[in-house]
Amino acid sequence: MDFIATHFVFLTTPEGWAAMVTLIAMEVVLGIDNLIFISILTNKLPPEHRERARKLGIGAALVMRLVLLATIAWIVGLTTPVFTAFGNEFSWRDLILIAGGLFLVWKATKEIHHTVDPVDHRDTAVGGAVSTNLGGAIFQILLLDLVFSVDSIITAVGMTDYLAIMYIAVIVAITVMLVAAAPLAAFIERNPTIVMLALGFLLMIGTTLIADGFGFHVPKGYIYAAMGFSALVEGLNMLARRRSERAADGTASATEDRVER
Q1: Could you report the per-residue pLDDT of 110-150, keeping only the tens digit for each?
Q2: Which of 85, 139, 207, 232 gets the highest tally of CB atoms within 10 A of its CB?
């Protein structure tokens, strides 16, 4: 009872519930970045390996974030400046964000190049599903998991002092990612134009991570608003294409009927 009274006292106050709901929502939204990357990367694997890779990648994200929460004092220490360069102070968090952003920009650029000109990159490391193995995919997922996990935990620390709220938010967010991973990956695979849009999102996210690492913070609301608007426009384009295809099919059927008569 003493443990519950100490760590779950927030459940007795409206402010505590509000903090928990807000942090859960934020963690779920922050998980979108990671989920898009996992979906695109696992779709390049052979079909029999995709589900396993998604589960391993998301499971690793959960373990990583729980471990980071257990070392929360160390995580907070990552924001302490370690050196100064170009007039800016850099912490370990900044260096992690810059490295992760550079990797994300490189990966998204390579994938965009392959999508635009697949023949020219048939034999490269990102040239197709047959050249992307399970181990390589898991390694890349873990690398981005680390970057997103550090950013996620530092965000959580800044929002609440209750460790239990952070654990609950992380577990709920990862559970949502686990449930949404397969449908999102299937949707991206069924709609090739979505791949380019998703890669554009990753390119933008990587750029903002680099900017954040150099001290130029871009509010997450602007990023997700841009992503939401782009997704809405693409959704309207998809709807327009489907209606055009149905109209074309109807016209073709009518022509065939007239010819038969």
Answers
A1: 888 877 776 654 444 444 433 467 788 888 888 888 888 88
A2: 207
